[in-house]
Amino acid sequence: MRFDDAAAVLFDLDGVLTPTAAVHMRAWELMFRQYFAEHEIAPPYTDADYFAHVDGRPRYDGVRATLVSRGVHLAEGAPSDPPGTQTVCGLGNTKNALVNQLLAAEGVEPYPGSVRVVDALNRRGVPMAVVSSSRNTAAVLEAAGLGGRFPVVVDGAVAAAEHLAGKPAPDTFLRAAERLGVPPDRAAVVEDAVSGVAAGRAGGFGLVVGVDRGAGPTALMEAGADVVVRDLGELA
């Protein structure tokens, strides 16, 4: 299926519509580098860990996967654990607090090429959704001037409330397609994360577009992308 033939388009947020993936990446690095140093965990956290264990996954899954990669098994804790708590949830909440601090200090601008694509789809009346593991999706969309552009948003908060498995499972994308009233094989998924691309492929979507913001075209294609672009403006 060609992008122009999609009956609906489901976008990831961070790294696809907005450059907040870079903000998340920095927050993960700050949190893990400090934690690893304090607990003498080796080897040090690197960008490779982000792409291998964190990118696109629900927050606590990213914490857990990264720790397991170092042979560390931490108590799960609870989502209500305050930042600084030495649990999986506490570390995830520390990272989230850092994201909010960075966003407040620096703001966020959407990718111009992505805005052109969203505007073109809107003019054609193509229904769109945002599917993100982040629980900050609504705030980021508003900050980026994209609030109200998407009739369906399935984010980390929705996934938790509806007990939907996170990426690389296809559940959140399938739920968004269901809410738009479009069968998966008639819809396109747009993702920059390997786990998100894998979710789109596992869901049987008609087209999976990988946006290379650092994962690499080979990794995105191997995960199931039908096409890889450097910027969504290439599709406009």
From TrEMBL:
Entry's EC annotation: 5.4.2.6
InterPro entries given in the database record: B-phosphoglucomutase_hydrolase, Beta-PGM-like, HAD-like_sf, HAD-SF_hydro_IA, HAD_sf, PGP-like_dom2
Keywords: Carbohydrate metabolism, Isomerase, Magnesium, Metal-binding, Phosphoprotein
Residues spanning the membrane: none
Domain of life: Bacteria
Family from the record: Belongs to the HAD-like hydrolase superfamily. CbbY/CbbZ/Gph/YieH family.
PANTHER family for this protein: 6-PHOSPHOGLUCONATE PHOSPHATASE, HEXITOL PHOSPHATASE B
Protein name (database record): Beta-phosphoglucomutase
